[in-house]
């Protein structure tokens, strides 16, 4: 098949419409960078909750990413004091995404990153939606691939650290692709 100039124009105009129709919009991703520990100093990709939670009004240059205890964050947190004014890393399962977000919010967290509980998940993003309780949450809620969450928690355990230091959100549009340090275990 040979396309003339008009044909290429139609193809170029059709592609964005096709992509938008299938829900694959680039702005549906939010990026954060782990600054410490150094062995996981990568830029991670997360997706925001679809119909609950807030948005980032501030860029945090250095904020703690604190793994919640217990990791599913479905009730009282034993390390809730450390989550106050920080971002919590919780694990999927045990209760709804909204319930986890509200638990972190009630402990004073600025946001929650919920990683998949399937630690081998390195490519499938789950759409986080509101549960049927009509409750709301004001803090941002993000979904993180299971492999990424596992690797962050594993690094913290190996170094004996109670939290990672991250920068969030990160604007990746100004970073050349070859400098975009994404985790080596995640392939696109």
TrEMBL record:
Domain PA: 65-149
Subcellular location, principal: secreted
Places the protein is found: Secreted
Cited Pfam families: PA
Assigned keywords, A-Z: Glycoprotein, Secreted, Signal
KW Signal (keyword) present: yes
UniProt xrefs under SUPFAM superfamilies: PA domain (SSF52025)
GO cellular component terms listed in the entry, alphabetical order: extracellular region
Lineage top rank: taxon: Eukaryota
Gene3D superfamilies registered for this protein in UniProt: 3.50.30.30
Name of the protein this chain belongs to: Protease-associated domain-containing protein 1
Species per Swiss-Prot/TrEMBL record: Suricata suricatta (Meerkat)
């Amino acid at each position: 098949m040979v396309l003339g100039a008009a044909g290429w124009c139609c193809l170029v105009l059709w592609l964005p419409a096709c992509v938008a129709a299938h829900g694959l919009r680039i702005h549906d991703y939010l990026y954060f960078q782990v600054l410490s520990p150094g062995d996981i100093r990568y830029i991670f990709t997360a997706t925001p909750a679809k119909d609950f939670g807030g948005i980032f009004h501030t860029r945090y240059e250095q904020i703690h990413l604190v793994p919640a205890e217990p990791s599913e964050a479905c009730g009282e947190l034993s390390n809730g004091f450390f989550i106050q004014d920080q971002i919590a890393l919780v694990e999927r399962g045990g209760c709804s995404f909204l319930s986890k977000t509200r638990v972190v919010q009630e402990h004073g967290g600025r946001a929650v990153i919920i990683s998949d509980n399937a630690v081998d998940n390195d490519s499938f993003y789950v759409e986080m939606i509101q549960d049927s309780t009509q409750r709301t949450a004001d803090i941002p809620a993000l979904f993180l691939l299971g492999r990424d969450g596992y690797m962050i928690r594993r690094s913290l355990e190996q170094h004996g650290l109670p939290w990672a230091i991250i920068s969030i959100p990160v604007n990746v549009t100004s970073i050349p692709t070859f400098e975009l340090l994404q985790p080596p275990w995640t392939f696109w």
